[in-house]
Structure formats: C-alpha cells, structure tokens
Amino acid sequence: MSMGPDELVRMGYVASRHYRDGRTRIEIADEMGLSRFKVARILEKAVELGIVRVEIVTSDVIDLELSVGLQTRFGLKRALAVVTPSEAPEVIQEFLGKVAAQLLTEIVVEGDLLGFTAGRTLNATASYLTSLAYSDLVALGGVAGPVKEHGVEVIRRVGRIAGGETWPIFAPLIVQDPVTATALRNDPLISEAFSRFDRVTKGVVAIGSWSPPDSQLYDTAKDFGIADDLLAKGVVAELCATLLDRDGNIVSAVDDRAMSITAEQLRNVPEVIMVGGGPRKTLAVRSAIKSGLIDSVVTDARLAQRLLASED
Q1: Fewest beta carbons within 10 Å, which of 79, 119, 126, 290?
Q2: How far apart are the C-alpha atoms of 257 and 88, rounded to whole Å?
Q3: CATH code assigned to 5-49
Q4: What CATH number was assigned to the domain covering residues 64-309?
Q5: Is the separation of the CB atoms in 92 and 84 below 8 Å?
Q6: What range(s) does the Sugar-binding domain occupy (predicted)?
C-alpha cells in the first residue's frame, strides 16, 4: 500500500515516540491532538507495513529520523528531509521537486487556493505533478528569472493539473522605483492576483540565498545596483520579495517596489511550505525558519543535518 510523504513521516514519528521513547498512546494522542484510537491505528498500520520491526526503518528517499528531528527541534507542521545522491544543485532540485509534488498531491484538498512562487526547484515540482485536488492558483510574486523558471510558467503548469482558475503576475518581482510598482499594482490583471493573497490556504515558496549568493532576486538587485547595500544591511535570504537577516528579522528595504505578497500576508497563510536545499542555502533556510513565515519544510538530508548540528 502506497502512502504520501506526510503520512509516512507522521507514522514514523508516532512509532518513534511509542517504541523508542516509551510514550503511551494517550501521551502521544495529547501531544499530537489525535484520539488514542487514531494513534493505535497508526501504530498497527506501522507494524503491518513493516515500518516497525526490531527498529524503525527509514524510507529510501525520506530520512525519517532527520525529518522528525527537524519537525521537533523547530516546531514545524511538516518536515521532509530528502536523501539525495549528491549535493549538485540540479540533483537536489530534482529530488526535492519530486517529493514536494508528492506532498502536494497528498495534502491539497478541493477548494484550496494555492500560492506559488518562482524558482528552479518549484519548476521541478511543477514538472513532477500528475494530479491535484481541484483548486485555484495564484502567483505570489512576479518574475525574477528566465522564462522557463519564472512564476508564470509554474502557475501555468500547476494550473493545468489543478483544474481551477489561475492568476499569474506578469511583472518583475521588484521594479526600479515605487511609482512604477504602484502603477503596475493598479493594472487590472495584476490587481486581480494581489486581491487573492489574503485568501491563500497553502503557499509553496522557494528560498533564495544572499550569503553566499544563490538567488534570482539577488541577481536582479545586483543589476539595479542595490545588492551591496542590502548585503550591508544584513540580508542573507529572501522569501518571495521579503528580505531576511540571519536571525530571521525582516529587512524592509524593497517593500515599496516589490510585486509580491507581503510578509504580513504570508504570515497569515494557514500553511506555507518552503522547498529548497543545497550547501549554499543552509543559512538562508535557517533564517526562513527563524522568521516564522514558513510552517513546513522540504529540504535535503545533508542540510537537515547541518541545521540540527547548529546551536541556534
């Protein structure tokens, strides 16, 4: 019997708490907000499927121990630590994209309004999606990269699978000045997308690193001649067009010219899933978790190890 990655990690967590940590079913039920009968069924299923034998075994693709470790350490709703054969960027993008697609297939329900950002990993996610519950989609920001990787293409591809309405944003992620941003936001098509931000039920976002640089938004800022100033202000990461320092604090430097969901709106989304990894993004992912803007993480196992080994 196949199961999605979220159910697999939850089953691994319940089994770990019961068989390894010695927690009773009632204690686990109270901890997770489940009935003790539900916990009992999960444990029975874990034994039936062979997840529990003498020890708790892991998935070939998802490291259960690291996933549970991330979820517990950082208080995340979901955490998936994906095992990859190497740390080559294109390998990580493909592996994370595939698992993220499986997760969305598992957790998206009919009537959801999904929000997507751009990014190479989310482009991979879109390419691996084969089915979704009927739902609408909105881009959470404008374009900050090549056509094949930008949000319009991601929205188009995911929208075909989801079957609902789509609202792309045909604009750059950041523009030269606030006047231009205001004019673009008043465009009827763009304002339609912006008006949906407060209704998003699940957000799927990429993570950009500024230290070291691995971000299409960083490249845009460099073209505008403002990247060095933003780095001097402590920027290490971005979610959508929200800039973050190493402690997860928001650096409000481009908000007035950003064509994107705001930090406040992102924080109000019931679940924001960050998808990203690689050796250059450890600090950025840590910053995103500290910010409180994301609820769930899909990352690679080596980055998960680095996060769990850190003291902060």
Answers
A1: 290
A2: 34
A3: 1.10.10.10
A4: 3.40.50.1360
A5: yes
A6: 64-309
